[in-house]
Amino acid sequence: xxxxxxxxxxxxxxxxxxxxxxxxxxxxxxxxxxxxxxxxxxxxxxxxxxxxxxxxxxxxxxxxxxxxxxxxxxxxxxxxxxxxxxxxxxxxxxxxxxxxxxxxxxxxxxxxxxxxxxxxxxxxxxxxxxxxxxxxxxxxxxxxxxxxxxxxxxxxxxxxxxxxxxxxxxxxxxxxxxxxxxxxxxxxxxxxxxxxxxxxxxxxxxxxxxxxxxxxxxxxxxxxxxxxxxxxxxxxxxxxxxxxxxxxxxxxxxxxxxxxxxxxxxxxxxxxxxxxxxxxxxxxxxxxxxxxxxxxxxxxxxxxxxxxxxxxxxxxxxxxxxxxxxxxxxxxxxxxxxxxxxxxxxxxxxxxxxxxxxxxxxxxxxxxxxxxxxxxxxxxxxxxxxxxxxxxxxxxxxxxxxxxxxxxx
Length: 409
Fold this sequence. Notes:
409 residues; alpha/beta; five-stranded parallel sheet
């Protein structure tokens, strides 16, 4: 295979799977490997990945450890939340939204390094293989993608460990010490799959959760936050200006401390498999509720309703890996146009896992107290007009009722 690939950029974490892949690529394809590690705010020390790559023969100039936290939140998370995106009614797409950025950087590094292929550690059963590869092909249609899990026979942890031992691959975790869960983390969420969660009747164990306290153990006093919005994005918390990444970090910390953001669902993967997963998304949970609140007073009714109709399509597009598609770009342009008036402040109350909206205000508000009041509005709204409105809208219903023999008009 040496004539097919000379240099590969590998999405590399330094863990068991990608360390084995690194050596496997070197041996199977007889090629040079460039490692790419993205800092998406997963909360782990990433420099050990550099040492492991060096120990496996990767030269310093071929090791990338990339801090993309601000780009991730600014250009991927925030645009997604402008759409109020939620998949199958519950999932906030924490894993899905990270993959297009990694795909983008893999392709960019491949161009910088003159590589003719990229590689990833996603399995042949999951969504991530689709997301990485659709993104890569959309950005570089001529790129070659190597997906070892679809080629090799190392289909168990035991086989991976045996391969690592045979090839002197440095692995920190020994047999039996690994968490029973497959976990993925970035600034938006942490996910848990596998192990006892493979039985959808089994409750997630209390010790599994890492980012949040249980609602039962959350403080007995509520926490209040004031979130300032400009063009649909949070720009300040309690009056303090923050960057997108700082906003999400703060909301994660405060939300997690109040038991916010835990989720246990069975979702439909794009490849056709039902998958049970547990998620912690404290900041995203607050963001979704608060964004809908500021939109409730600033968006025209029909614009808001049309945007809600568009959202499930947008969510499925992101979930299935089509971030770099023309349909996502078209929807994003429409969504972002609506956000010109989504400015103002939302007051949020956090209490034992709950996120309650307790205030919203905006100079762009369409809420008119003079019209909405139950008191005398001074003629701002003529209630007698409602009679004609109702009769016109009832016309087709009355006609149908007559046809069905329910009386006379």
